[in-house]
């Protein structure tokens, strides 16, 4: 069954097409095409320095909290503005609630329904998979609709609304901390946690998160089959999802959730090169560049530029090398992947690292990371809310004026990976604004060295059982939680067809 998801995200949103070349039943080449230009960076030029707090949450209908958080961090960085601990806690609670929403919906509404395809009818466990994961009628599907709608109420409790909230401002948040809204948030959290423990993992969060060896977890799944995580693990691995879609083995995570006076991160970031999780490098935003060689933008300097220097001037033309409205971000001149898996690997999750050492990144592990991350995030939200209760009467905002001139950046982990905003302000107005989104990293086109983007590379070698119904391509792309309308053009034996969500 065909599905189409329309979620707007800067530069590559609306429509993205993949041209895929198939030979002898396998993908041999791929081109990722962002075919819609939006231009939020241009919209912001000349506006008041505070306008990004209202405009950038509209970049994405499901990641508005992430964009708001990143935008306010950029302003605070530009003018050296501090935030009281309660302001940080409320921001982190809301970001994690939005992340849990995304991880839940992506897993059970976007990815697992494909496991119910009739081609898998002979695989052990198929009937149970259909009972849980089938669109509309599956129990896990129906639960996810209900539970994801509830968890994001936490954002509305503190932010007044969701999506498109604007409650974060330089120096903190606009919502005061009080016992009522904290207990309301805890009640919402209790409801989601009870469902997640009973239905999704079949265990207490602490016990489940304590597993740090791949072999132990797989054995646990065999001994505890009556939960959704075990079902997904057993069935997905019987399909061989762990055997393909590795793509770039360079994992980038900015880290996020600043805490305390020194702004240490509750989830640390970093850079893992070529899958070597034992030799993690620290993250440095100055190593980020954007290549325009295959994008429909003016590239007068013909070299990759850091976002502080990057230019977003559309220049569409047919023919030539350009084939996408997406730029090609690179870190330390390397193609990278980002997302839940990269975040957990860089923040030291033992179970994810053990799987990655044995199998590399792959479609199954990338998707499983979103179940794993929810468990850890639920524990974090509870601790943050309890900390707020314990420090209820401490300030949540410190009013500090913006300067007239400055430049700064904000980087966090959105649900789909690395998100960064870079801003330059002159005479109180925005002179320069650049946004680099998670899907820009993953769905980038080729660069000047003709190196494929991560999605393009992750498709190479993927086996296609039926060229008229390339379900495997759907598994690969959806495992990245693409925040876009994704349509795949398949070209093989002179055939061209549409396969989309």
From TrEMBL:
Ranges annotated as spanning the membrane: none
Q: Report whether Ribosomal protein shows up as a keyword of the record.
A: no
The record, for InterPro entries, names: Ni-dep_hyd_lsu, Ni-dep_hyd_lsu_Ni_BS, NiFe-Hase_large, NiFe/NiFeSe_hydrgnase_LSU
**Binding, Ni(2+):** 60, 63, 483
Q: Where is this protein localized, as stated in its record?
A: Cell envelope
Per UniProt, the keywords (alphabetical) are: Iron, Magnesium, Metal-binding, Nickel, Oxidoreductase
> Residues that bind Fe cation, according to the entry?
63, 486
Q: Which residues form a coiled coil?
A: none
Checking PROSITE patterns in the record gives: NI_HGENASE_L_1 (PS00507)
> Which positions does UniProt annotate for Mg(2+) binding?
41, 435, 489
Specify whether Magnesium is a keyword of the entry.
yes
Q: Which cofactor does it need?
A: Fe cation; Ni(2+)
| Any one GO MF annotation of this record | nickel cation binding
Q: Name one GO cellular component term.
A: cell envelope
- Organism superkingdom: Bacteria
Q: Which family does it belong to?
A: Belongs to the [NiFe]/[NiFeSe] hydrogenase large subunit family.
Q: Could you tell me what this protein is called? A: Nickel-dependent hydrogenase, large subunit
Q: Per the UniProt entry, what species is this protein from, by scientific name?
A: Candidatus Terasakiella magnetica
């Amino acid at each position: 069954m065909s599905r189409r998801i329309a979620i707007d995200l800067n530069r590559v949103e609306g429509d993205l097409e993949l041209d895929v070349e198939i030979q002898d039943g396998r993908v041999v080449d791929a081109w990722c095409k962002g075919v819609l230009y939006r231009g939020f960076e241009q919209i912001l030029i000349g506006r008041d320095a505070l306008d990004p707090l209202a405009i950038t949450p509209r970049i994405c209908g499901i990641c508005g909290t992430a964009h708001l958080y990143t935008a306010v961090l950029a302003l605070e960085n530009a003018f050296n503005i501090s935030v009281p601990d309660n302001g940080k806690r409320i921001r982190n609670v809301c970001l994690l609630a939005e992340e849990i929403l995304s991880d839940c919906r992506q897993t059970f509404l976007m990815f697992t329904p494909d496991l119910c395809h009739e081609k898998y009818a002979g695989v052990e466990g198929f009937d149970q998979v259909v009972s849980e994961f089938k669109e509309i009628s599956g129990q896990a599907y129906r639960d996810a609709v209900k539970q994801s709608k509830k968890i994001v109420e936490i954002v509305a409790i503190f932010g007044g609304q969701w999506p498109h909230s604007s409650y974060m401002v330089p120096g903190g948040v606009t919502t005061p901390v009080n016992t009522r809204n904290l207990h309301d948030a805890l009640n919402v959290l209790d409801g989601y946690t009870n469902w997640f423990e009973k239905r999704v993992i079949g265990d207490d969060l602490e016990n489940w998160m304590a597993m740090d060896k791949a072999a132990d977890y797989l054995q646990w799944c065999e001994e505890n089959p009556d939960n959704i995580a075990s079902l997904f693990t057993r069935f997905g691995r019987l399909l061989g999802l762990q055997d393909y879609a590795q793509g770039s083995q360079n994992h980038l995570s900015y880290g996020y959730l600043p805490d305390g006076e020194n702004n240490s991160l509750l989830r640390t970031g970093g850079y893992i090169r070529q899958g070597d999780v034992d030799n993690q490098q620290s993250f440095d935003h100055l190593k980020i560049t954007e290549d325009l060689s295959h994008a429909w933008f003016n590239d007068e300097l013909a070299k990759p530029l850091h976002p502080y220097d990057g230019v977003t001037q559309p220049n569409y033309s047919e023919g030539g090398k350009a084939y996408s409205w997406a730029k090609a971000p690179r870190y330390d001149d390397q193609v990278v992947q980002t997302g839940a898996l990269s975040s957990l690997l860089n923040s030291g999750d033992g179970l994810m690292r053990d799987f990655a050492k044995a199998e590399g990144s792959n479609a199954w592990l990338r998707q499983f990371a979103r179940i794993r991350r929810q468990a850890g995030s639920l524990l974090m939200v509870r601790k943050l809310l309890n900390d707020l209760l314990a420090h209820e009467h401490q300030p949540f905002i410190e009013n500090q004026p913006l300067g007239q001139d400055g430049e700064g950046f904000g980087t966090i982990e959105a649900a789909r990976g690395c998100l960064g905003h870079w801003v330059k302000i002159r005479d109180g107005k925005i002179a320069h604004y650049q946004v680099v989104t998670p899907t820009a990293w993953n769905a980038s086109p080729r660069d000047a060295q003709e190196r494929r983007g991560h999605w393009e590379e992750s498709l190479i070698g993927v086996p296609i059982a039926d060229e008229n119904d390339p379900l495997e391509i759907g598994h690969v792309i959806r495992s990245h939680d693409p925040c876009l309308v994704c349509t795949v053009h398949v070209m093989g034996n002179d055939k061209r067809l549409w396969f989309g969500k």
